Amino acid sequence: MLNDDLTILSKIEAGSARGMLAIDFETAQETYKKGRAAPRCATGSDIIDSLIGGGIEPGRLYLFYGNQESGVDILMHMILVNGLFPPEIGGLGGKAVYLNCGNYKYERTMIHSEFLCGLIRAAGFDPDEMLNRIYAVFAFSEEQEERALDEIQKLLQADPSIRLVAVHNIAKLFTAREGTPNRDTAERIVRLQRIIHDIWRICMERNVAFVASCRPAKSKGSRIPPPEGGRYLSHRATIIVYLEKKSGGGVSAHLIKHPSCAPKSARLIIGGEGLGRVTLPFRSLLKDEIGRLRRTYREALLDLKRRKAFDSLVGVWSIELGAMSNASVPTVLENMLLTAAVDNRKEIEELIDKVEELSHKLKKIELKLEEIKR
Fold first, then answer.
1. Are residues 266 and 317 in the same domain?
2. Of 258, 278, 298, which one is at a domain's C-terminal end?
3. Are strands 239-245 and 251-257 parallel, antiparallel or unpaired?
4. Domain span at residue 324?
């Protein structure tokens, strides 16, 4: 067997010498330069972009993890939107697939459409046009996340313009909730590993950026906890960043893993150069939503009385702005519907009181009529 291998090598060398076979080699430095020149997607924070080497690079798996207070949800939304923008302004210039994983029964987990629209408008683009470039997939159970994997594979195979896959809370459905027994942990983690591997594989084959988020796992005695979902996710991820809300204000971003950068940390200031600078006030979101409904909904109403009813609700929404901004309801429109329902109930109660009052007066009149007849 060794002699056969040597004979084959000798033939290759001889053919190469005669110009019949040419083998091109690329140095590590050339490969590194190509990687640096590749288009990158901005995360929405210059500090995080610098931390991870310039932004999100296609063909790699980026993992951002942290508690909800750390701003990781905001970061995922910013990356999703930035991936749609042209490369000259820090985007990937294509479409995106967004997978949101969460148990709707226990917590309201969904895409924040108003926040996305605010980011798109701030960049000078049309929200309707940009949102049509996002394939949104939702999974509320382990089985649905597995079926979502098949859907993502079909989308990537059918649409070559997809340049980003963003998976929100990739491990949540496969980890036990607090206060519930952690049954069949090994079997569930194996299922999660398959999802991670298959999304990673198809993204790498098509040079698509793969960005995922998750929560930190519980860890004793460790200053920086590992991400939840087992070791495979950490092994497969190319770049890992842990976001930590600091007690004194702001967020610390810790680079845990990178192929060419040493671990390091950076501080983000909420409300300044950091994750909080793009958060839009509820008043602005409400104004935008009312304006959109006036243009698209109110003008389409045929009944003038219904238009008048809509205008009266605008006044109610303006009066109850403080209550709506403090409500734990995920979207502006749902806040508006809640307030409209409360106002309708108030009107119904007032009408009930008036009917009861009229009924009481009518009974008195009936009694007097009976006395007169006698």
1. no
2. 278
3. antiparallel
4. 282-373
Domain count, the chain: 2
**Per-residue confidence (pLDDT) for residue 342, from 0 to 100:** 75
Rounded CA separation 84/239 (Å)? 21
**Distance in angstroms (rounded) separating the CA atoms of residues 59 and 210:** 7
Give residue-wise pLDDT tens across range 292-340.
888 888 888 888 888 888 888 888 888 888 887 777 665 667 777 877 8
Alpha-carbon distance of 59 to 238, in angstroms, equals: 10
pLDDT in tens, 32-60: 566 556 678 999 888 899 999 889 999 99
DSSP 8-state secondary structure symbol assigned to residue 277: G
Residue 125 and residue 250 in one domain: yes
What is the distance between the alpha carbons of residues 208 and 159, in angstroms, rounded to a whole number?
A: 12
Q: Cβ(65)–Cβ(72) under 8 Å?
A: yes
> What three-state secondary structure class fits 108?
coil
- Residue, of 256 and 285, whose pLDDT is higher: 256
- Helix (H) / strand (E) containing 336: helix 332-373
In a domain, 23, yes or no: no
Please, what is the average pLDDT of the chain? 81
Cα separation, 58 vs 78, whole angstroms: 16
Are 188 and 315 members of one domain?
no
CA distance 93 to 235: 29
Burial of 23 (0-12, 13-18, 19+ CB in 10 A): exposed
Range with lowest mean pLDDT among 145-149, 241-245, 334-338, 345-349: 334-338
Question: Are 323 and 217 part of one and the same domain?
Answer: no
Question: Does residue 67 sit in the same domain as residue 210?
Answer: yes
Position 5 in a domain: no
The residue-averaged pLDDT of 195-205 equals 94
**Same domain as 243, residue 308:** no
What is the spatial distance between Cα 80 and Cα 61, in angstroms, rounded to a whole number? Answer: 14
Strand blocks (E) in the chain: 61-65, 95-101, 134-139, 162-168, 209-214, 239-245, 251-257, 264-268
Q: pTM to 2 decimals?
A: 0.66
Q: Whole-angstrom Cα distance, residue 242 to residue 257?
A: 10
Same domain membership, residue 214 and residue 72: yes
CATH of the domain at 199: 3.40.50.300
